[in-house]
Each structure stands twice: as C-alpha cells, then as structure tokens.
C-alpha cells in the first residue's frame, strides 16, 4: 500500500462544508439530550423532566395530529382498510382517489415536479385561498419540504458564487431576525447576505421599506442585490404583514429589479386581532398587470406547519409566478435531480390542503381540530405576553401569527464578559444556564440574528397551555435570580 | 417602475443548472404520457395500452407491497388501529415500538442523522448481514433516499469544482454503463468524470482492475483522481461482484489513495447461480487491519429497492467507514441542513430491514413475499435471456442480480444517419419507434453510457411474467421489421 494519506480530510473537504457555521441551538439540543439521559440514569436534578420550547415541531410539543389526514394515510398505506368499518366514508373516498392517482400505491416514485394530481390540487387550493386569482398547476413544483424548496431556489438564483463578495456576487436580502436554515442555505449557495432589520419596537417587528432601500443602496458596488427573502407570517417574529406593507414591498422589488422569494409556511396560523393572511401572489395580482405581468415571485409552503403540522412527511411546494420559460425548461433537469418529493408526503400535503366539506362525516372533527389549533396559539400568545410583561428586563412584542415569539432579554454586562471568556455568546450562556437549572430549553436568539448588543430568545407557542404556564413561571424565577447574581 | 429586466434569465441562472444535461429517458416518458392521453381520448393506436419497462420502480410495475411493512405504517399513521383486531400481534408490537421511538408520532422532525433508534437498528441489520463485523450506529447517516446520499457525498468530496478539469479538479471514476442520476449529480457537484468501462462480454459486465488502472494513469495530470464509484449489484448491468473482484478493487483503492463510494442498493436482489451479495465493508474487514483501518468507504442503501420496493418513501442511508473525525464534526452542519430524511420514510426503511422472526404471525407472509421477489426476478431474467438470444442483432449478458438487463442492439448504419438528421441519438430513435409502433417504452442506453458505436436498451425485470413475455414478443417483431426497413 503506497498511499498513507487520507482522501477526505479537513483540507480536502469541499469549501462549501467549511462555509457552514454550526448553530448554537444544536449545542443546546445536545445538552438537553444529555440531561434527559442523566435523569433516566437516576442523576438528581432540580427538575423532573426536560422541556424543549425552542422548536417549531408541533407534534413534538404534544399537538395531536389531524384525524382525517392520518386516517386517509393509513388507508393509503394499507388499502385493505378500505374494507373496514372503522374509517368514515369520506376518508375512504379520499384515499381511493389518492391511490388511483398514484397508480394504486404510495410506494411509487413521483414525477419530476410532483404527482400531476397533487399539482392540480395544490393549484385549486391556491385559487380558493386567493379568491379566484388563477393558478396554473404547471407552476407548482413539489419538493421534499419547504426548506428544500428554499435551498433549490437559492441554488438557482445565486449565479456567481465564485466571485465571493465582489461586485458580481448575487446579493440576497435577508431579514433580521430570520430562520437559521435560510441563512445556512445562503452560505451554502455562496450568495452575499444583505441583512435588513425588522422593527424591534412599535407593533410587532414590522418591515420598513426604507430599511430595504438603505440596504440595497449600500450594497450596490459590493455585490448585485438580486433576491429579496420575505417570511410572512414571520418566524421568529410573529409578525403578519398588512396589504399595504405587501404592496410597498412589491413596488420596491419591481423598481429595484429584485426577485421575490416569499416564505408563507405559517399562512394558516394567523390569530392576531384584525390580522388576516394575504398571499403575495394575491396582492400582486390585485395591483394590476403593470406589476402582475412582470414581478418575479416564488412562494413556498409546507405540510409541516398549520393545522396539519406534519413535519415528518417532508413535503412542500413552490409556486412560480412569471418564471422565465427558458429558465423553466433549462432547470427541469435540476429540479428532477433534486426536488425528490416523497410520494407519501405529497399525499399528506394534498390531504391537508383540502378539508372535508360541510355535511361529510369528518367535517365536524376537522373543524374542531382546526379551531383548536388557532385558539391555542392565540391563548398561548396572550399568556406569553402577559407573563413576560411582568418580568423586568424582558420585553416582548405581541405575536400576530406563526408559531413563535422572540422576546428581548436584558443581559447584564458581567454576563457578556463571562460568556466571552467561556467562548459562548451571551444568549447561549443564558439559555444553557436556564436549561441547566430549570430543565427548559429556549432558543438562543443569535442563531436568528439581532441588532448589535441586543439579545433575544425564541419561544414557541405550541406547548400545552398549562405546561407553557409553568415554563413561563420558571423563566421569571430564573431571570430574576440570574440578573441578581450578575449585577 | 424603472426596471424592465428580469432577474432570473438564462444568462443569470446558476451555471450549475446549465451544466445539467437532460436525459433521453425523459423525452421517452413524455411521449409515453402523451400516447396514454391520446388513447384515453379515443385516438386509434396499434396497441391497447402503453407499457413502461424502463424504470426501476417495482410497485409502478405492479409488484405488491410487503404486507407487514404496510400494516406497520398504517398503525404508525393512525395509532387507533392498535385497538383493531385486523392487524396481527407482531405488527402492533412493532408499530408501538416505532411510535415510542419517535415521541409518539410519525409527524415529528427527525434528528440530524436520523432517529437514534433507526440508526441503531440499521447498524444491527448491517452486523447481522455481515456476519458480525461490527457497525457503530454513529457511522450511520439517514438521508432522503440513496440518490440524495450519493449527491451529499459527492458535494462533500468534490472540493475543487472551481478549477474545472485543471490538475486540481477532483476526479471521480464512474462505471460505463452507470445510473444517470449519478452522472448528473457529478455534473452538478462539478467533479471531473473519469469513465471506466465494464466488460461488455464474457460472463456479465465484469469490473476489470486493469481498466481502473488505465483510467487513473491517464487522468493524472489532468485532474486528481480521488473517488471510485462502484455499483454492486449493478444497474443497468445486472452484474454481481465476487469476493475476489471486491478484494482487487479495495487493494487498488488503497494503493491509489481513492475514496470508495459504494452503491449497494440492490443487495437484496441477487439471483444468479452461485452468486451471493458480499458487502464491501465485510470484505474490507476480512482483509485485515492493514486495509480495514485505513481505506475510506461510504456505502449507501435504500428502502426503494429489494423486497420492500418503497420508492415513494424516499429514505436511504450512508454507512461511513474510516471517516476522518474532523470531517465528521465539520460536516455535521452540512448534513443537518441537507439530509432531511422523512420520519415516515425512516420507519418504512427500518421495518423493511428487520423481517418478522420465525414463529411470529407475519413470518409466513413475509417469507412468501420475499421469496416471490427473488423468484420472479430470476424467472424474468431467464425469460429475457432466452427470448433475446433468439433475435439476430440483439445480444444480452445474463443478469445475476439487481432489477435490470442491458442488451446490446445492432442498429443499422442507415438508422444512425437518419437519427442524426433528426437530432436524436440512434438508441433514442430506436426506442421512440418501438414506443410509437408497439406501445412499449424501453430505456435508451445512451443515458447510461456505452463504448463508442455500441447501442443498448435498458429493460427491467420487474414486470409480471406474462406481460414481460408479450413485451419481448413485441420487441422481436419490431426489431426484425425495423432492421429490414433500414437495411
Ligand atoms: C419560516 C420557515 N420556513 C420553512 C421552514 C421549513 O419547513 P419544512 O422544510 O419542514 O417544510 C420552517 C421550519 O420551521 C420555517 O420556520
Ligand atoms: C444504483 C442505484 N442507486 C441509487 C438509486 C436511487 O434510489 P433512491 O434514491 O430511491 O434510494 C437507484 C434508483 O434507481 C439506483 O438504481
């Protein structure tokens, strides 16, 4: 054997892997897992169980899956159940329809852009949602989750990763704060990150077009600002855009020649008083052909969120608006090789998008489950705001939609120093202490980004109400102690 | 509105999308789909239905899913079924175990590398398969299918895509013929493709180490040969490597310092007389520490093939052997952001890997279904060989495993000219004519690669026996007519 050298070493691994920074949340999750194992082994702790409040995984938080979706899927996996009288009529009917549309089995590969039936029924959902604005099924691309959808889009749109931050680099406007997966995907694609700040005061993390303007202007020369990423309703902010705000953004994108990449996965979860979800597509169409015939838009959605909350199925979709036909045909191979939506996931998604109709046997249960989704988000949001408002040094903007809120935490200067000596960010230091002492894992805000010197944590609104209550009580006690210790 | 220019145009789209060439099979599939629609609309055709024989999708070919897997999945999706007496005891037991391991619901996100339980049980499967060779669950990475696994690996291993085919380009040895997805993934990653030819005569597409040697030697200077991709059992060849052949390849990889990327998705489907599947991992370990402590290997497998044939679940895994610990820790973010294995798919996979035991209620059915998988592949292989051997101008090497065979077709020189004027490859011209006249879609060989001037088609061995028989009869008639027409 002549060669002693390894092939895959730190030096030889793709530079793309080097670009990806680890998340602080991963350290927190790892520690939560260790604590859980210690408790199992009988190690004494000041708490009985570890509670995770950082993630957006509804079912992991204890939310019950939607009965109709699960019944339909059970029958699709095991069609013998169509003979059973355990399943309601409309479930059987739906399952039969789905099976017919995938050649009789959920075990087949899907077409490149998804099953034709699923494309059609996603389009039908969008038309109904948008009050009749037309949607062509050919513009619907199914993907293995909406995160994958975002990655695929970035990899198409970032065309000059080679030149780093030179004037030819593809600039992507990214909100602060923002889901970490999007920032990672952008690092991986090699685009230039152009952070725009959401308003950390006033109503709730509003988007200010002047801020977009500032970012684009100062970016020109360093890179080519090309893509504007919007997340509405917002994670982790809980913000829901008004029609006026959306119109402003569209006008801005049009005048600056920006591609709109709109992440609308929380569209079913708007609970703020007087707020309603409006899709960018709908608003764009209602602004007339001057805009609707030209502004390029890709909107993404997912089976993971909303009432369904089926994170494990990994299915989402893109709707393209004004996609260049040549790009469409060129990129077919790219999507074919990469979108790879699971067939089972597509069936979950399309079932989630079409609820049973009034009069059908599953209508009542579905309606209840869906109302309970919204009402528990809304009750939890009220509880969080009320509880945190009581705590000196914590300030939260009242969420209007989505699964999260993003309170600002005052962290004493001594902590900032101490964290630094330990090589931790102040927010991670805070979260790890809270976890260690109270067994509660909240998300360290710096994974999401923040203004210099401001610190945050992310909390989801998905826990059962009583559990959330006790988490908030723990947070209050912890925060007071912690502040005292370091003052 | 100042800007009239589109953002996402052919000029602006990522160069990666430009690199990906379309597949000829896609044209064939599109035409098959059109024909199907024409028939539905009542257009008269010389055939009653369109039969596709090109794909590797067992259930789309009519294979019945494995009862045990489907029953377990139905119960995981709808746990109320655990109360029903429609499901056997061992099914319920298994489903309960799975549910426990994913926090009670298949609707949750999975951990970065997959559910811990799934990692453990994949490792247990590998140890049993390899006669006790140890497997550390920490080396098992679950992915959204084995195609995704291969893409992820290539994107890690190809570290110098920037320099094209310069001396610093990462060279990847790829068999000819080879699954098109792998060649596409390599184009996308930007590696330098180094084709090595499998032996198109003798027993069945054997791998010759001298050929590997020739390729590596002539590549040095143009690029850095770094990765050797092996597909055993082979698609589309049907070849199954012997222990001796695997040992030779491992010795070669060791002496040349190549990373072994081994695709073993057809491991459960070996039917050739005197042939058995041996994993590279097992052979490597049995060659002793001189090799087993140093040769770097990543082996991939999938729920899509074998008895399970669950293509729609999109789940596969990588086993790493001798992965550099620094690379392992660096690449955690990369895998976390990209592998995204569906939770439901992981449950399908792990169920497929662990059959019911003797004495359990589902044992008999499983055993029957599993035997019928192998015996029908074997019967179909014999039928194909016998039928094609009769046809002058067609020659097939007898497949020993996997789902395919890859007959060589003599295409008259006149056809080659005619195809050229139409802008088609000769094999696609042949396949389209066969489809048009007989309603049968076989795979155009040039998607898989071939020696200059030799033409092939790919046939799967998955059709019901009688249907395959009539397909082969059609092929005989077509081939004779076609040859006469163009002679
Ligand atoms: C804003 C946003 N977009 C996309 C996703 C990804 O969802 P998935 O990939 O499960 O569809 C998430 C996940 O939490 C999210 O918060
Ligand atoms: C050799 C080989 N590897 C991998 C795959 C991909 O399988 P999947 O992505 O469904 O796991 C295929 C599919 O046909 C194949 O033939």
TrEMBL record, chains A, B:
Its cofactor is pyridoxal 5'-phosphate. The keyword Transmembrane does not apply. Keywords: Aminotransferase, Pyridoxal phosphate, Transferase. Residues 87-475 form the Aminotransferase class I/classII large domain. It comes from the Eukaryota. Its EC number is 2.6.1.2. It catalyses: L-alanine + 2-oxoglutarate = pyruvate + L-glutamate. It is an enzyme of class 2 (transferase). Pathway: Amino-acid degradation; L-alanine degradation via transaminase pathway; pyruvate from L-alanine: step 1/1. InterPro entries: ALAT1/2-like, Aminotransferase_I/II_large, PyrdxlP-dep_Trfase, PyrdxlP-dep_Trfase_major, PyrdxlP-dep_Trfase_small. Homodimer. Belongs to the class-I pyridoxal-phosphate-dependent aminotransferase family. Alanine aminotransferase subfamily. This is alanine transaminase.
